[in-house]
Amino acid sequence: MQILENFKHADTFVQMTIGERVAATLYVIILGMGITFTALVLIWGMTALLSRIVQNIEKKSQPAVMPAPKAAQAAPAAAAVEVEAADQSELIAVISAAIAASMHTSMHNIVVTSIRRTGDSTPVWGQMGRSDVMNSRL
Question: What's the mean per-residue pLDDT of the chain?
Fold first, then answer.
């Protein structure tokens, strides 16, 4: 600690030998790095602790999974067909509206005859670029 006392005043620092200056400088460097490392370890520990606390809270708040009654298990196919038909009509309406909006015309002037998915051979970086461009317009 005597070395650090010499850093307080400029005139005592000037009177130090080169060896004492190097030793004092190394001492300050090690002290600073040690404090920084200790602070980072504490931050990491607190982050890990809070992560575990949040995971425990999420596990407790999730509802227990209960098995479905046997009567409801018999008719999932019929329900899926009804939902798919409703989704298809909604999809057609949404696509028609989007086309009408892009063409600046009324939906009455557009008739959607079929919708089929096409293959996309665009690489991931191209898809991300498109996504970034579209998000930057918002």
Answer: 81
